[in-house]
Amino acid sequence: MRRMITLVALCIGPAAGAATLHVGPGQQFALPSQAVAAAHDGDTVAIHPGQYFDCAVVRRNNLTIEGVGGGVVMTDKPCQGKALLVIDGHNVTIRGLTLQRVRVPDHNGAGIRAEGGDLTVEDTRFVNNQNGLLAASNPAATVRVVGSTFIGNGACAGSCAHGIYVNQIKLLDVERSRFLGTREGHHIKSRALSTRVVGCDIEDGPDGTASYLIDIPNGGNAVIAGNRLEKGPRSQNPAVPPAVDETPSRSLRSQGCG
Asked: If you write DSSP's letter for every residue of 84-105 in order, what string do you get?
């Protein structure tokens, strides 16, 4: 007796019903905030090249916000007195953007303010903000930063702001990213239970006035490996040698930086 065997092919792709919302001149939405407000869980907001004086509060989960074609800049206009992108959703991915020139009265203005669950940031530039990326406490959250650039962020006016500053989260993972010219604060400050900084280029440069390269004031687990770390002549922490290949995973506190 001949038996018939039926093979069923299963195609696994984006979640059913997920949409891509396009932003830019001649696109479906003129501003990133309009697309973010219209998005549903699992959607992608695709921002086309241009300079956007705009900000957005991201409340959806599993959302991707990405620049397409390069030259996508969000600038100058923080939401809620916090950041260009305020992330309240879970499992959000930000990719291919430039986030710049954020100033707010409490001196904590950020390119990204992470207040929700897990966040992934890829290939994104943070330029001349008070904080590059600032994360609120959430013991279950992971913040992952990959292939990104932080230039000229930081401030110490009232309180100190940094290139990256995460409060008490589960994990901060920073990989293959560059930090240059941070002002007064630290390039990376982490109160996470676990901190991982691998394959990064962290330097003050000739004009940077940063304190620590990496500050882990609450202790916890730390992997600091394969980085190029260099202090500059104008550093707020001159006790560190001006150029080193690597530094132990320890906190190098300087007076006056919170």
From this structure: EEEE-SSSEEEES-EEE----T
